[in-house]
Amino acid sequence: MFEIIVMVCLAATGEQCKEYKFTEPQFEDAVSCIRESHATAYEWQGDNPKFTVIGTRCAKDAKVPEVPQS
After folding, report:
1. How many domains are contained in the chain?
2. What rounded mean pLDDT belongs to the chain?
3. Is residue 41 part of a domain?
């Protein structure tokens, strides 16, 4: 299953960038994951204004922490 991975930075400084993953939703194929990644990241950023999403990607079994909730 593919997961959406986002690269986020602190909005106030633009620094301290890290990758995080969304555990839900998961996707059967990379194309579906990529298609949904921007909308999912955009929605999450709206609920977490102290972060700025600077990129997305899709991966299987990524060894990164789950997205923070503020």
Report:
1. 1
2. 93
3. yes
Q: Is the pLDDT of residue 70 over 80?
A: no
Q: Which domain covers residue 45, as residue numbers?
A: 2-10+24-60
Cα separation, 32 vs 9, whole angstroms:
25
Residue 55 within any structural domain of the chain? yes
3-state percent breakdown (helix, strand, coil) of the chain, nearest 5? 25, 45, 30
Query: For strand 18-27 and strand 51-60, is the pairing parallel, antiparallel, or unpaired?
Result: unpaired
Q: Is 45 exposed, middle or buried (0-12, 13-18, 19+ CB in 10 A)?
A: middle
Encode pLDDT of 22-43 as tens digits. 989 999 999 999 999 999 999 9
Residue 15: pLDDT over 90: no
